[in-house]
Amino acid sequence: MMRLERIVRASARIHRANYSSSAVPKTKLFINGQFVDSETSDWIDIHNPATSEVIGQVPLATQSEMEAAVKSCEQAFPAWSDTSILNRQQIFLRYQQLIKDNLKELARLITLEQGKTLADAEGDVFRGLQVVEHACSVTSLMLGETLPSLTKDMDTYTFRLPLGVCAGIAPFNFPAMIPLWMFPMGMVCGNTYLMKPSERVPGATMFLARLLQDAGAPDGTLNIIHGQHAAVNFICDYPSIRAISFVGSNQAGEYIYERGSRNGKRVQSNMGAKNHGVVMPDANKENTLNQLVGAAFGAAGQRCMALSTAVLVGEAKKWLPELVERAKKLRVNSGDQPGADLGPLISKSAKQRVCSLIESGVKEGATLLLDGRNVKVKGYENGNFVGPTILANVTPDMTCYKEEIFGPVLVVLEADNLDEAINIVNNNPYGNGTAIFTTNGATARKYTHLADVGQVGVNVPIPVPLPMFSFTGSRASFRGDTNFYGKQGVYFYTQLKTVTSQWKEEDATVTSPAVVMPT
Ligand code: NAD
Fold this sequence. Notes:
It is an enzyme of class 1 (oxidoreductase). It is a single chain. Helices cover about 40% and strands about 20% of the residues. It has 17 helices and 22 strands. The chain has a 7-stranded mixed β-sheet with strand order 14-15-16-13-12-18-19, sandwiched between helices. Strands 9-8-7-10-11-21 form a 6-stranded mixed β-sheet, with helices on both faces. It has a 3-stranded antiparallel β-sheet with strand order 5-6-22.
């Protein structure tokens, strides 16, 4: 079968499976291996951010639907955790191939619901796919430790064992990548998984669930519910859920961390950011300006690792006019249009919020060098577009600096030297990512050691680690002890059991009870 034909057929099949056939497609729930209609009377509209057109609806799952989903996870757990690790690995090996085969179709769905450009949406799937590929190394990642001969005839060894039912709560900005940080890592370790995608972009997760079923995941190993606060509270409170992976805003993440932890669950919570790009005057100017512009405005700034704050050090302050010229050249358009560099924001309220933060900057004394608030996109007049915006002369006390803007807005601060720049970065509460642009190794080394930020790029603007490492945001950008994916992801989704065994030769019989602590 031709590749295109295969994609079209798969898409039609998935669409039929995931949505009801009403006028506005209604997203289904995925319970015990079945894509089922919700019986709820509460539905949320899903909009195409480029047109504001309603393209679907997502249910707020009822209490009994959420219970059915988690019970399905509970029932599937004994057999799944007992399935040989090689068989679990085989399912994820097939899964990664299916994701590759359907990458373009998944990207198309992401662009439709989330708005980002098709090329960026492919990157979204691709970075998630890499986590699935990494999950296939589970046979190495789950190895325990051994130490022989602790005393005569005695050995100690550890097993890494799954926890039980785990749950994931995802944000809107990476509809494929972030769910793929969650359930594949949890499941390959032998857990069953309850997933709650963002109610604004549920389509990619539903598509991914169908592909996982096609790859051979048994019924009940993955269940999907939809909803908002009630679904989140359900996950935080339900007794058999052992661990929660959350990615999203601080408001939700702090709440989920507190509530989930109070109920005795493991919680890993990746949250908001304010990522600084420190530009040294010795940096390669051409590369640095291009990297800054790409990392500030790509995905319309809706990335937790967007480089949303530039700190120009010394003579680098003079580069501002060229930075503005480059930003002006970016093309704002619907994400599915050829040549689009950035698409719309997710919603009308997101646009309103971004515009009011720009306005606050102006009111508080910043200089608006480039204003994207009135951008017009021909044919998409109802879209939530904001063009690249640059606020200069920003100071740390301004609202536009203190808040995560999550839009295509670059705020620019100035520093006289590296120490001053480091001070600015370390006084900001967030610690997700940062980058330094320099050609001086000693400067780079000093920065990487002194910047109190979890992920540092040296001439790399968005240093999101590949999945053999872990995503290591820190300070206000993360709550928990164990990070997403990499070895840390396996540690999060497993618990250790330590076995100490003694096998004596027959003639080495224990002749009297040992009543003191063995030494
Ligand atoms: P969000 O917090 O609004 O939503 C995330 C999830 O939490 C959704 O599933 C939503 O239903 C739920 N939720 C929303 N508000 C809630 C509340 N008050 N109580 C309980 N649950 C709630 O986040 P978003 O707008 O979808 O995503 C953008 C945010 O995510 C940004 O702050 C961004 O920096 C952050 N993010 C962080 C990372 C990271 O790895 N650090 C990655 C991507 C996005």
